Amino acid sequence: MTKSALITGITGQDGSYLAEFLLEKGYEVHGIKRRASSFNTQRIDHIYQDPHAPNPKLKLHYGDLSDTSNLTRILREVEPDEVYNLGAQSHVAVSFEAPEYTADVDAIGTLRLLEAIRFLGLERKTRFYQASTSELYGLVQEIPQRETTPFYPRSPYAVAKLYAYWITVNYREAYGMYACNGILFNHESPRRGETFVTRKITRGLANISQGLEQCLFLGNLDALRDWGHAKDYIRMQWMMLQQEVADDFVIATGQQYSVRQFVQWTAEELGISLRFEGTGVGELGIVEVVNGNTSTSVKPGDVIVRVDPRYFRPAEVETLLGDPSKAKVKLGWVPEISARDMCSEMVAADLESARKHSLLKSHGFHTSIVTEN
Ligand code: NDP
Ligand code: GDR
């Protein structure tokens, strides 16, 4: 029997990797995409299947987590074996600017899906995965953070995700639904959104190395994160839904690095030796040496990183470090890609793109680089 899955957030980083993964496993994959004024399916275009072709295995439905009737209709039509709720307003800083929208989509959107599954009588058939987050730990109460660590959310995003976490647990306990939370620590990839810090760094410095930008403006360089690779983490999302009994798991690498360290790795990859000078808002990243890399436009003495307070958050999560022991013992899951290797992969992808822009520019074609956020 072919299994079917419905993915909210299929056009995002995780949704795109998960869709690939499930298609390879022979699933029929349904995804919810939002209506936008321009195409927004770049991350899944390579697996797109023409709906006119016989038996397409990937089907997209227009929808939105804020629309109950739309979600109910899609669930009724698909009757999926598995639902992966990855859709969210997922940017922590943006959640301070759009707190109500974030709550509607990230918190109540989760309730809408769970309630639609129940309303349609699918609660014995459909297994539910909720994209929970290390942001729940916020102001950390224990190091490292594990499944039993108390939560202390520090942003409208994290508070909304706290509701989603508990409503998932509640529907499991109240209605016997197979519903689980993956408490995922930060995970990145070349498909990471351009405004999250890792991608902002790899893309920004790659552009600077090709003379397309002059300086990368960042916020808190001291923030510590446990960064893994999205490909490792989506594998775990699927594994969680294949157990006999639904449960919640922390997914992390158990290693922690600072934002400044990630900048250093990226510079290293580009053949640039960078010295940090000053502290806080005055801190600068200055080019020390360019190591035998003739293709870079920067020269010693150039200031290519500056701290800009506009990227500080009203309440910051300073440190996150996960303990993935439960996932290892119960599911045999271990991450395969290190943060350092992931950085290298991200730089390679962003450098290729920067070189394309630079080549176009040198031939007189107009090309624009969006750097906002
Ligand atoms: P992305 O921001 O890359 O993707 C988010 C997805 O949600 C996109 O497909 C987006 O659509 C969609 N979406 C946004 N708003 C709505 C809405 N109102 N209705 C329906 N869909 C919507 O996130 P990631 O792939 O990185 O993360 C996936 C999930 O995991 C998110 O819920 C995130 O909060 C959570 N998470 C992520 C972690 C990480 O480090 N990446 C760690 C822990 C949790 P569009 O493309 O149109 O914008
Ligand atoms: P985070 O990821 O908030 O952890 O949420 P992000 O990459 O945005 O920030 C990580 C840390 O870097 C600091 N930082 C900056 N962040 C951004 N975006 N831009 C900057 O210029 C900058 N400078 C420093 C931040 O202050 C922060 O401390 C991500 C999202 O994917 C969530 O959806 C997910 O739940 C969590 O990871 C786990």
From TrEMBL:
Domain of life per record: Bacteria
UniProt keyword terms in alphabetical order: Lyase, NADP, Nodulation
Enzyme Commission number(s) from the entry: 4.2.1.47
GO molecular function annotation: GDP-mannose 4,6-dehydratase activity; NADP+ binding
Transmembrane segments annotated in the record for this chain: none
Presence of the UniProt keyword Lyase in the record: yes
Recorded catalytic activity of this chain's protein: GDP-alpha-D-mannose = GDP-4-dehydro-alpha-D-rhamnose + H2O
Domain NAD(P)-binding: from-to ranges: 6-346
Enzyme class: lyase
One GO biological process term: 'de novo' GDP-L-fucose biosynthetic process
Pfam hit, one: GDP_Man_Dehyd
Cofactor list: NADP(+)
The keyword Lyase is annotated on this UniProt entry: yes
Stated role: Catalyzes the conversion of GDP-D-mannose to GDP-4-dehydro-6-deoxy-D-mannose.
Family: Belongs to the NAD(P)-dependent epimerase/dehydratase family. GDP-mannose 4,6-dehydratase subfamily.
Alphabetized PANTHER family for the sequence: GDP-MANNOSE 4,6 DEHYDRATASE, GDP-MANNOSE 4,6-DEHYDRATASE
Protein known as: GDP-mannose 4,6-dehydratase
The organism of origin for this protein: Sphingorhabdus profundilacus
